[in-house]
Amino acid sequence: MSKEKSLIDLARETMESAGIDPSKGMDLESLPAQNMNETSTPQPTPAPVEAKPQIKETTDIVEGRYEDVLGDLLSEINVVSDWIKITLPSRGKSYVSCDEDIEVKPFTFLQEKKLRSIKNVNASQDIIKTLFKDCVRGLDYDSMTLADKNYILFKLREMSYGDDYSIEAVCTSCEAKNKLVVKISQVPIKFAEDGFEEPIKITLPDSKQEVVFVTPRNKDEKYLADMEKVTDNLWRFAISVGKYTDEKIKKAFFERTTVKDVVFFREHLLKDYYGMENKMSFVCASCEEEVEGQIPFNEYFFSVS
């Protein structure tokens, strides 16, 4: 059985391992420190002292043109800000003079503030018209067809905020609310066929009269509030009925002709000849039924979130 060492024996061994004669002794300051029972606790490394940021020299003196100064301040923004070409769904075939491609650019924060200030339908028409004037060139707003306008609006949103458009859709089976995200770039677009042109000619089924007409434009939206208003204003879209172009004749004709004639003309007037597909389908998260609906305009349309 080994004999337990005394403190004196341990001190002697320590001195001998350090090359010191135990018989001569030594100063305590020269003896290496050693804890026989515990390991030493590491001391925390002091946090590096951060250098104070260098403050650039400022000035209220503007040298050169304001546009040049602003261009320099905004030079690092990595977003699309130039005019880019897009192909209209109508391919320009609905207009007297318009190419199939027009140019658009994203709107700025100042323009977004105007859009988000919309409180009613009447105000929205004026503000959106201003937006188109600033961000669309190559096509007059008032003469633009509703299908082309709708497509351009979605493209402007995609360019300004990104591809994701958050919507809420109600299930028609269980009435549960579903939060969905529409990828604008993936929404199908129907382009006008090669043989399509306006004005459009149709022959009414009962009266056998030929009607020449144009599809509704932005300036006509006030006549499209509901089906009754559309029906009362059919004559406004007809360029001619038979050989007559007189407004009184056209209006009186649609008041006196048959219901079948009126419905036939109305269906052709509101037909989707081209445009962005606004129908969608989704599986309800609550009842797992497949539901069909429409892509809506909502309060987030002119917003990132």
Strand content: 15-25%
Biggest sheet: strands, sense, closure?
3 strands, antiparallel
Percentage of residues in helical conformation: 25-40%
Strand order of the largest sheet: 1-2-3
Q: Using DSSP, what is the number of strands? A: 12
* Inertia-based shape: elongated
- End-to-end span in angstroms? 80 Å
Mean pLDDT: 84
Order of H and E elements: HHEEHHEHEEEEEHHEHHEEE
**Radius of gyration from CA coordinates:** 39 Å
Q: Which structural category fits the helices and strands?
A: alpha+beta
* DSSP summary: helix tally: 9
**Which regions contain 5 or more consecutive residues with pLDDT less than 50?**
none
Please explain how this structure is put together:
The chain is of the alpha+beta class. Among the domains are: 84-162, no CATH class; 197-272, no CATH class. The chain has nine helices and twelve strands. The strands form five sheets. The protein has a three-stranded antiparallel sheet. The chain has a three-stranded antiparallel sheet with strand order 7-8-9. It has a two-stranded antiparallel ribbon with strand order 4-5. β11 (279-283) and β12 form a beta hairpin. It is elongated and about 135 Å long. The chain starts with 6 loop residues before the first helix and ends in an 11-residue tail after the last strand. 14% of the residues are buried. The model has no long low-confidence stretch (mean pLDDT 84).
